[in-house]
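Before the break, one more example. Copy the sequence into your notebook; we will annotate it together after we see the structure.
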Amino acid sequence: MTTTQDSEKPGKTLRASLDVTDVAELKLRQRGILLMCCALVCFACLDTTGKWLGRHVPVWEVVWARYVGATILALTFTNPWRATGSLRTRRPILQCVRALLLFSSTLFNFLALKHLQLADTMAVGFALPLVLSLLAGPILGEWVGPRRLIAIMIGFIGVLVVVRPGVGALQPGMIYTIGSLFCYAFYNMFTRMLAATDPPATTTFFGAVSGAIVLTPFLPYFWTWPQSWHVWAGLAALGCFGGFGHFLLIHAHGLAPAAVLAPYVYTQIVWMTALGFIVFGDVPGFYTALGAGIVVSSGLYLFYRERVVKAKA
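Here is what the structure looks like once it is written out:
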C-alpha cells in the first residue's frame, strides 16, 4: 500500500527539478546582464577615446582606425577563406546601404564628440528606441499603439530639452549627433530586414569592413602622423574597445533575452558622465540631465509596454 509520504515524493522531486531549472536560468540571465554592462563600459571607453583622439588627429583618421580594428577582428573571427560561401549575400544592395549607414553614424558621432560633452551625445542617443518604434510601422509594418505613441512623443520632448533648438543657433555638434541617431536607426531597421535572408556572420562582416574600404583610398589626404605614443595607443585601443564590446554584447544576448537586457542600456549614461568628468572635466548641465531623464523614462515605458503586448499575444 502506498503511503501519503510516498505519494508526495514525485511532487517534491518535480518541484526540486523546477527550482534547479529556475536557478540555472537566473544565473544565466545574471551573467548576461553582467556581460551587457561590461559591453557598455567598453562602448563608453570607445567614445571617450574617440573624443580625446579628435583633439590630436583628424576625425577621418579616428574613424579609419576604428574600422581597421573592426576589420581585423572580423577577418579573424569570420575567417572567410576557410568558411567559403559564408559571406555571400542575397541582398547585396541592402547590405551595402546598411554598411554605409553604420559608417555615417560612426562619422557623425565622432564629429559630434568634438563639440559636445559625452553626456550630451548619450542623452540624444537614448532616443534610439523611440525612433525605431516610429520607423517600425512604415518600414516593417509593426505599428505602435496609442500608449506607446504618447511615450514616444514625451521622449522626443526630452530630446528637445537637451537640444534646445529655440535657444540661439543650433550647435553643429547637436546636428551631428541627431544625424548619427537617425543613421543608426535606419541601420538597425535594415539589419532586421537582412536577418530573414542573410546569416549573421555575413551582415556583421559587411558592417565591419565598410569604413575601411571607403576611407583607405583617401588615407594619404587626411593622415596625420601621431606626435606621441599615447595617440598611437589610443588609435589601437579604438578597435579593441569596439571589437571586445560587440563580442561581449553578442554573448550577453546569447545568455539572456533582449527584453531583460534592454533596460540596462541606460546605465551607459553613468559611465559616459563619469569618464567625461574624469578625462575632460565635463559636468552635464541641468537641461542635459533633465532631458536625459525624460528620454530614459520614456524608453523604459516602451520596453514595459512591449513586454505587456507580447505577453497578451
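Residues 4-53 form the longest helix (50 residues). The radius of gyration is 22 Å. Try to locate both features in your own notes.
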